[in-house]
Amino acid sequence: MDFINKIIGEELSAFEKKFAEAVKSQTPLLDRVMKYIIKRKGKQLRPMFVFLSAKLQGQINESTYRAAALVELLHTATLVHDDVVDDSLERRGFFSINAIWKNKIAVLVGDYLLSKGLLLSTDNNDFEHLHILSEAVKQMSEGELLQIEKSRNLNLKEDIYFEIIRNKTASLLSSACAVGAWSTSKDEDIRDKMKLFGEKVGIAFQIKDDLFDYGKDDIGKPTGNDIKEKKLTLPLIYTLNIVSAAKKRELIYIIKNENKDSAKVKYVIDSVVASGGIEYASQKMNNYRDEALSILYEFPDNGVRKALEELVRYTTDRKY
Known about the structure:
By secondary structure, the chain is an all-alpha fold.
């Protein structure tokens, strides 16, 4: 990350101040919640992709900062709403908004963040920004609902899995790259190329998250958590599709009925490892990473491209 900070460190520092200003509210309760959100922000990966995608095409400008703020506003809003939907009491090792202020306030906070994003774009006539990100929000909702619908019978096919993560996870990262590129190029072909680049990275990013559930590192969430929540991830889908019918029935029964039993969850994890599910998912992840890099390599070789490549590799090499 050191090289990335050399390329866009100043822009990220300026962005933090601009974002804090963008979410300010005259309502004391809202302002307290916003300060809490800012203090516990994550790695800022999406703003990084916005700035690097922009800088790959030209000089970062105020439109780029607004694009990054819009991405972060919408991302934060979806996280707040997700925690309500999932009844999750933690986010990144901190209490979630709904854990502290309860669901009603959390939903309204998410709505507030969405409205701030809309106003930021319409007040500055950034209609292409709004169009790109609105499509992402639609896709994210569709992906979440498709996952709920298809996961009930625990018989998810790989093509449906990829449709879910393309919509649910990759769409926002894809839009971050597209809106960043548009802010400095105003070129539809470049916008679309960077959107596809971001989609490939986003899919690789989600597969990496899937793999964490089978690791032993301290990553901020319990190992086997996806199994306990009956989430079908790529290593597990692969396993269920290649084992015998009897073994498949056994694993599905455990996931449906014994997913709180640590020994049973470990048995599922061991079965996935033994079946080659980890290697299969890792290979798929690396394929998507390499497809993203092949798009990136179509652009001139310079410091910005190198920083973007480092960020892409970080998404698949990260430890948490």
